[in-house]
Design goal:
Layout: H1 2-18, E1 33-39, E2 44-46, E3 49-63, E4 69-80, E5 83-84, E6 90-96, E7 98-100, E8 105-116, E9 127-130, E10 133-137, E11 150-151, E12 156-169, E13 175-181, E14 187-191, E15 197-204, E16 210-213, E17 224-227, E18 233-236, H2 243-251, E19 272-273, E20 278-279, E21 286-288, E22 291-292, E23 303-307, E24 313-317, E25 327-328, E26 336-338
Parallel strand pairs: 1-15, 9-13, 10-14, 11-14, 12-15, 12-16
Antiparallel strand pairs: 1-6, 2-8, 3-4, 3-8, 5-6, 7-8, 8-10, 12-13, 16-17, 17-18, 19-22, 20-21, 21-25, 23-24, 23-26
Length: 343
């Protein structure tokens, strides 16, 4: 009798397995793609691209604080190496937006970044700790690392500066690690619902090493001691180096120049004119340039004086989104650009 029951149990399992939904990805050949490109500096290497697809059909079940059943979009995660483009320092991958399959997967988010290729150059036992990471979300779901810090309308173009940070930790066992210290957390998190290109260019200031030593015992008022590239030693309550202090040491410019919060109040903004002439929809044959700060952010009400390729002069103040007044296409490319204090 036991043998008969076992046979029936096996038969039922086979039937059930035949009804299991196929959760695999099957991108259609004509699926639109998103390009991910990373420009990798010397000393660093590109990390594996972590890709997550979401499905509103194949749900995953979890439970709330009161034990209630909660249905969330299912996910399918894959790892993918970015491929080097010839002998350049660019690494990229093209990801289908439509993941296909029975679950009708769609691209949800990607995680990628750069890391030190050889941490042991800072010491035999040194390991890589973090920094230089990017997360981009293409739908309204959060990533495994949380929600977005920045909202982007269109393609994602990221250029961020980093400093090497060598830290010694004592509590919980001695460890020595190298990180990339930048203006933000380990991962920069963006939401870009309409992006088709993601470009990340980390800039490494390898000659400006900051070191730190953690406390050896838990004691109120005892902080991490940072030694900055200029030799100054500062005990900080914060857990990471002062990015704005590092930039001041590197450039000799006030920290206001590098703080998004105070930058607009600082006079030395070093404006630039972005090179692309954007077509003016209301005036065929004309276009507008964008006046931006040194980080590529559009600036408003900034005086400019532009000279066309034949010497004609155009001047005014940048308007909404940093746009100049309409300029005839025939003046492009410009021969000279000036930013006078007053017009």
């Amino acid at each position: 009798m036991k043998r008969v029951s076992s046979i029936w149990l096996l038969f039922i399992m086979i039937l059930l397995s035949g009804c299991t939904k196929d959760y695999s990805l099957a991108p259609p050949a004509d699926s639109e793609k998103i390009n991910i490109t990373v420009k990798v500096p010397v000393e660093l290497e590109v990390e594996t691209l972590e890709v997550m697809y979401r499905s509103s059909i194949c749900k995953r079940i979890t439970h709330g604080a009161s034990g209630q059943r909660v249905e969330l979009d299912g996910y399918h995660a894959i790892d993918m190496p970015l491929q080097r483009q010839g002998s350049t320092d660019l690494y990229s991958a093209d990801l289908p937006i439509d993941g296909g399959g029975a679950c009708k997967w769609h691209l949800g988010n990607v995680t990628f970044g750069v890391a030190y290729e050889n941490p042991s150059r800072f010491g035999e036992t040194v390991t890589y700790a973090g920094g230089g990471g990017v997360v981009v979300m293409f739908d309204h779901n959060n990533s495994p690392r949380g929600g977005a810090d920045f909202q982007v309308d269109g393609d994602v173009l990221i250029r961020k500066e980093y400093f090497p940070w060598l830290h010694e930790r004592y509590i919980g066992g001695y460890r020595k690690s190298i990180s990339l210290a930048g203006a933000g957390h380990i991962y920069l998190q963006y939401r870009a619902l309409n992006a088709r290109k993601v470009y990340f260019e980390p800039v490494l200031h390898s000659d400006f090493l900051v070191t730190s030593k953690g406390t050896k015992v838990h004691k109120i008022g005892d902080f991490i001691k940072f030694t900055y590239p200029d030799g100054s030693v500062v005990a900080e309550s914060q857990a990471r180096p002062d990015y704005y202090k590092l930039q001041t040491i590197r450039t000799g410019r006030a920290s206001y120049c590098f703080s998004p919060r105070y930058y607009s109040r600082y006079r030395d903004r070093r404006p630039q004119l972005l090179p692309e002439l954007l077509p003016d929809k209301e005036m065929p044959g004309y276009g507008r340039y964008v006046v931006a700060d040194e980080w590529g952010n559009a600036v408003v009400s900034f005086a400019y004086r532009l000279f066309g390729k034949n010497g004609e002069k155009f001047e005014g103040k940048s308007g909404i989104k940093g746009l100049t007044r309409p300029i005839p296409n025939s003046a492009h490319p410009l021969s000279k650009v000036e930013f006078p204090e007053r017009l």
